[in-house]
Model the fold of this input.
Amino acid sequence: MKPNRRDLLRAAAAAGALGLAWPLSPGLSPAQAREAAEALGADYDPAPFTLGVASGDPQPGSVVLWTRLAPEPLAAEQRLPEIVEVGWVVAEDRELKRVVARGTAPASATLGHSVHVPVGGLRAGRHYWYAFTALGKRSRTGRTKTAPAGRVSRVRFASANCQAFHDGFYAAHRAIARENLDFVVHLGDYIYEHGPVGGDAVRDHNGPETFTLADYRIRHALYKGDASLRAAHAAHPWFLTWDDHEVANDYSGTGGGAPFMRRRAAAYQAWYEHMPHRDSGASALPDPEIHRVRTWGDLLELTVLDLRSYRSAQNLPDGTILGAEQKSRLKRGIDRAPDAWHCWANSIMLSQLRGKPGGPYMFTDQWDGFLAERKELLTHVHDSGLEDLVVITGDWHSAFVDDIRPDFDDTSSPVVGTEFTAHSVTSGGYSADWNQTNGPVMGKANPHLQYFEGNRYGYDVHEVTPERWSTHMRVIADRRDPASPVTTLTTFHVDRGTAGSYEDPATKGSPAQYRRD
Done:
């Protein structure tokens, strides 16, 4: 007899925690674990395309299409043949009648029955619709867009980060799916690796801390169980980088012994299996290369950074957060930069952050732990004459706006750019009392800090024209509500050719714990 949801929840309680009952508790099959997950707020697309569809890395003539066959999304291994042929189609219309490309791709058990289809021969700057077929079923229809070529008068994109499943529903992604955007940039902490948190969590993790490929696959599938996240993927193409929690808190990609390196390899493979990422390697198993430079016509140059894979330990005189090859590529790109806006997708805060005047850095896991390399890089930006640099950042679970200087301790050091650190999608930040007390203290300790707001959750929308960059801080009302309304908290602008940002007069009266007069 099929157990009902009340029985599954009772089994979860008997196991000691709801999270431990999903799918790893004895006596629950993957199908029963899915029912328990759904009872706690997860849901999935129809099998076998339960995890949805996505597209990514748009270029003028191509885009990558993604899906993964997972009839039992919370199972470590799918009961499927070793190889399943997956059909795909791309069309100029939502009904998929004006077909421009079609084909098949093998989904192998080696890569979790995921497929990554690099579709070429497309027209620049155009919307397309796509879908997959397999095992007699068809996926939902996704929409994507290729990058434009030549002259561009406007680009509008969102950035998102830090979406702890247990901290709330993805109302931010629900809103992103409905925004009029060209693309989305995800800045890391797509999943969290730790076990259940218990307490009053909105919904909890489905097992203990992740270590193996099976663990990470199940965790990614759990996060894809939020319908709003799947909708955001299906609505727009994404660029992606990662931070630490895709593997382990505060990790260094070059540190640790053999057990950690096996864990890192498992996490990287599971990440690739679940993302619309264009892999540059030719091997059967991916070693994802994140760093890349993409253009949106003549208007925007986007540089995606990997600040985990090549970093050394923190607080070393000759420490590196970029690694030698990535730093060399970045500096060459600065030297050859086109006349455009330059945006760095940066997972952790670039700007200096002291906790009190003259005090220590708050977190040296971010760029503050790599002082010499940061100064070297930003001095190179200044000396090269690069203008119109905007850095978009995640990780902090709060919003900051900073002037970027080669030497943050010297107020006469020139401003070479602006950093926008965004609110998190759901991941919890400091308390309102802490923010109220420490916002002004951080302002006094960091003369380059222009704005701080830590009481809200959401995402940023960046609207860019040849004359001005505008960042709109979009915030949700309640992360416990999957349909929470979204509003614009405030907007900051950067004028072309002028370093530094300013707040829009229409939103300058909005709540914040610090703003520089």
Summary: The radius of gyration is 22 Å.
